[in-house]
Amino acid sequence: MKIMIRKNAAGELSAYVPKKDLEEPISIMEKPDMWGGMITLANGWQLELPEMAADTRLPITVDARKVND
């Protein structure tokens, strides 16, 4: 699924899922730089992100895979 990841002025990361019109903060990151690992949103969704460079600029739209339902 396509998601947009962005950082707000306070430096907090969030993910927006356009198909669901859902925006949730990212509460847990498996890897410190986020890319190529799992993230957990505040609503409990777990998403697997693609490998990307640690200095990838935000906001960015990526193709993530939802792991749980």
Low-confidence stretches: none
| Number of E-type strands | 7
- What is the terminal separation in angstroms? 13 Å
General form: globular
Oligomeric form of this entry?
single chain
Give the biggest beta sheet: 7 strands, antiparallel
Q: Could you estimate the helical fraction of the residues in percent?
A: under 10%
Classify the secondary structure makeup into a structural class. mainly beta
Rg, Cα atoms, Å:
11 Å
Count of helical regions: 0
Order of helices and strands: EEEEEEE
Beta-strand percentage range? over 45%
Characterise this structure.
With 69 residues, this protein is mostly beta strands. 0% of the residues lie in helices and 46% in strands. The protein is built from no helices and seven strands. It has strands at residues 2-7, 13-17, 22-29, 38-41, 46-48, 60-63, 65-66. A seven-stranded antiparallel beta sheet has the order 6-1-2-3-4-5-7, with no helix packed on it. A hairpin with an 8-residue loop joins strand 3 and strand 4 (38-41). The chain is globular. The two termini are 13 Å apart.
